[in-house]
């Protein structure tokens, strides 16, 4: 049974800005799916719809066979901007993933049960930061902060993890570290994972399946072997321009990505 089902989903802003255009696909349990496409293609809107933060204008979204209505506690989110509390430790930030279970007041007062604390420590171990559990976020590197963000999502005990450009601001080594730990967590916990990326070479290294999005439509659905340079040209240029494979080190910018108009950042 598919974990995620998009059926004829459209999202329109301000009556004439089409962010998603009649999108249909399914994602099975445990798949690690990467969304590729130029800025403004609809990747972030798709993730926001999946997280219940944005309601589709038309169509339906089902998770585990149930219609998605509002935010789901079983969906963990990793953001491009990690949104950590800088004065808190890695452990404290990871533990904040239990907010949905404990409520705001109990969490603010630090009233967490032992099970939540164990889960937070296990999540930090999963992302390779157990030894840094007591380190304040303000003194951590960008890659470490993003890994804490992954740990926080894991503390939610999610069935699905969504990540919106989680390595966009990181250097290649840190980006690979973050993606390696995200893939490790997904594999060990059998999590269905959907993440958007701009770094094509890193995407090919870690993705099991790729959805190519352009102008709000899914125009490619396949694995790394199917993701030839012609297909990348179609995704980023809108037409094939020749070529057999994507060269090592290729970025979406080198494939001709341009800044497309987005509606308040929603469509990007």
Automatic annotation (TrEMBL):
One molecular function GO term is: ATP binding
Region Disordered: which residues? 239-268
**Stored Gene3D superfamilies:** P-loop containing nucleotide triphosphate hydrolases
Signal sequence bounds? none
PROSITE patterns named in the record: ABC_TRANSPORTER_1 (PS00211), ABC_TRANSPORTER_2 (PS50893)
What CDD domains is this protein classified in? Answer: ABC_PhnC_transporter
Where's the ABC transporter domain? 4-240
Q: Which InterPro entries match?
A: AAA+_ATPase, ABC_transporter-like_ATP-bd, ABC_transporter-like_CS, ABC_transpr_PhnC, MetN_ABC_transporter-like, P-loop_NTPase
Q: List UniProt keywords, sorted A-Z.
A: ATP-binding, Cell membrane, Membrane, Nucleotide-binding, Translocase, Transport
Q: Name one Pfam family in it.
A: ABC_tran
Q: A cellular component term (GO) from this record? A: membrane
Top-level taxon of the source organism = Archaea
Instruction: Please identify the protein, giving its name as recorded.
Output: Phosphonate ABC transporter ATPase
């Amino acid at each position: 049974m598919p974990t995620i089902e998009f059926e004829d989903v459209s999202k329109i802003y301000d009556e004439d800005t089409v962010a998603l255009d009649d999108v249909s696909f399914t994602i099975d349990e445990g798949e690690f799916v990467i969304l590729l496409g130029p800025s403004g293609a609809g990747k972030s809107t798709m993730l926001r719809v999946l997280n219940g933060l944005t309601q589709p204008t038309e169509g339906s979204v089902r998770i585990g066979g149930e219609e998605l209505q509002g935010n789901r506690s079983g969906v963990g989110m990793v953001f491009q901007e990690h949104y950590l509390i800088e004065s808190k430790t890695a452990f404290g930030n990871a533990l904040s993933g239990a907010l949905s279970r404990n409520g705001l007041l109990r969490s603010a007062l630090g009233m967490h049960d032992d099970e939540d604390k164990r889960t937070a420590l296990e999540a930090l171990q999963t992302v390779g930061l157990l030894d840094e559990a007591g380190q304040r976020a303000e003194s951590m590197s960008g890659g470490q902060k993003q890994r804490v963000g992954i740990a926080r999502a894991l503390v939610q005990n999610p069935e699905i993890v969504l990540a919106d450009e989680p390595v966009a601001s990181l250097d290649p080594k840190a980006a690979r570290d973050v993606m390696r730990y995200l893939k490790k967590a997904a594999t060990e916990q059998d999590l269905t994972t959907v993440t958007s990326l701009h770094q094509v070479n890193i995407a090919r290294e870690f993705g099991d399946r790729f959805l190519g999005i352009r102008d709000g439509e899914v125009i490619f659905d396949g694995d790394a072997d199917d993701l030839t340079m012609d297909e990348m040209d179609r995704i980023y240029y809108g037409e094939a321009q020749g070529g057999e494979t994507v060269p090592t080190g290729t970025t979406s910018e080198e494939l001709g990505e341009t800044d497309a108009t987005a509606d308040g950042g929603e469509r990007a």
